[in-house]
Amino acid sequence: MYSLINRLARPELLTMTPYQSARRIGGSGDIWLNANESPFCNTEPAYNRYPEFQPQALIDNYAAYSQLDTAQVLASRGADEAIELLIRTFCVPGKDKITICTPTYGMYAISAATCNVAVNEVQLTSDWQLDEDLANKLGDSSLLFICNPNNPTGSTISVDTIEAIIQACSERCIVVVDEAYIEFSPQLTSAKLINQYTNLVVLRTLSKAFGLAGLRCGFMLSNEYLINLVKKVIAPYPIPAPVGDIAAKALSPDGISLMRNQVATLNTLANEFTQSVEKLEGVEAVYPTGANFVLVRFNDDSWFNALAKQGIVVRNQSKVPTLERCLRFSIGDSEEMKRLTQVLTETAKQLAPQI
Ligand SMILES: *Cc1c(COP(=O)(O)O)cnc(C)c1O
Question: Does the predicted TM-score (pTM) go above 0.70?
Answer without folding.
Answer: yes
